[in-house]
């Protein structure tokens, strides 16, 4: 396993990328012995970590029995086969007859999984640091979330899912206030629910482009018969008929070009991941396989900081790295002023897919300054980091910005996707930021239960306490093995 960052799962808050065991048709005695050894080692590690957390707890407000209760009394992993085991491999073979399955690690028994521990199809119990790609805020089968699913209101909206953009339910405003608005980042009073992280980022980019053009035209509404509207009509050269009370005018015009389709761009960073639509892939720079064979928008990118560790030993070098990267951002924006102006800058607080790299508050403050200087919207992608996994509800809150970012996107641990934005960002015209469902009321009831659980059990403080223990242990390990950069 490779430690990758942050996820709120039961009571430990991290996220990892699992490295698959080789898929073998049979188990050798050495394989069995190896897995028995791993089982014992992991069990000792989990118990030791729990004892370490208990020994170092600094807050009497925390109910530390909560940790064991959510895990159903499971003290550690219990391995019976290699992973994937024979049952998982058989299911993979069957699924492969009609479904792409090359990314599947193993099959899960979701009914038996509990808290931070996942049970697979072969009866193995694993400490799950992956947590469904970082999307389970409270682990498996949390009683509060299961209770929310059983409510009549949740069942109603599961069976009759409303198109929230046109016919929302009467209690929709109350739903928003008790969920997304209750944890909105400071000064970001507008929220737009969507479906997933890609939906959130795609529509955040669209919102930024629309906002940028609205600024350029002085916030005047575009008329339906304007050159801008006509040039955005379709992708062909053709004839358009414009009628009035006196004239029938036929215009031959090349469509889907300026001024209606402006030459604008969004700046992203090396290592960033923002989704899998064509727009989001155009600002994604983590793994080339995601983009292979797919045409991309030709948008600029800049270098994300690469720090030296331990941070406290390389403060001067890392400050210089921040300054170098900010200079590159400004130079890139400047170079595009007269070709494809940068209307938005999109960045993750912690690059997860990109190698678990983080930027300093100094870097992000400087980035926001450049966005303001050149009139670009700052989009902070909190799809991975939002929801409490860093000890705060939103990772950007660690930066202590004087003003909030322009747009914050979310998904995963928030159960639905969407974005927050400041006043004046959303377009006034209908259907410009739209979709069939525009969120999911059934998931909002589950989100409300999750937020109530976080508050009731003081889980953000638990994240902080657990993080201190983990960080202390990793630093101690780093001292013992000076060349250590990651755990594999």
TrEMBL record:
Entry GO MF terms: pyridoxal phosphate binding; transaminase activity
Protein known as: Uncharacterized protein
CDD domains: OAT_like
Single GO biological process annotation from the record: gamma-aminobutyric acid catabolic process
GO CC annotation terms, alphabetical: mitochondrion
SUPFAM superfamilies: PLP-dependent transferases
Domain of life: Eukaryota
Keyword Disulfide bond: no
The keyword Transcription regulation belongs to this UniProt entry's keyword annotation: no
Family stated for the protein in its record: Belongs to the class-III pyridoxal-phosphate-dependent aminotransferase family.
Keyword set, alphabetical order: Aminotransferase, Pyridoxal phosphate, Transferase
UniProt xrefs under PANTHER family: 4-AMINOBUTYRATE AMINOTRANSFERASE, MITOCHONDRIAL (PTHR43206:SF1), AMINOTRANSFERASE (PTHR43206)
Organism, as annotated: Amphimedon queenslandica
Cofactor: pyridoxal 5'-phosphate
Classification via InterPro entries: Aminotrans_3, PyrdxlP-dep_Trfase, PyrdxlP-dep_Trfase_major, PyrdxlP-dep_Trfase_small
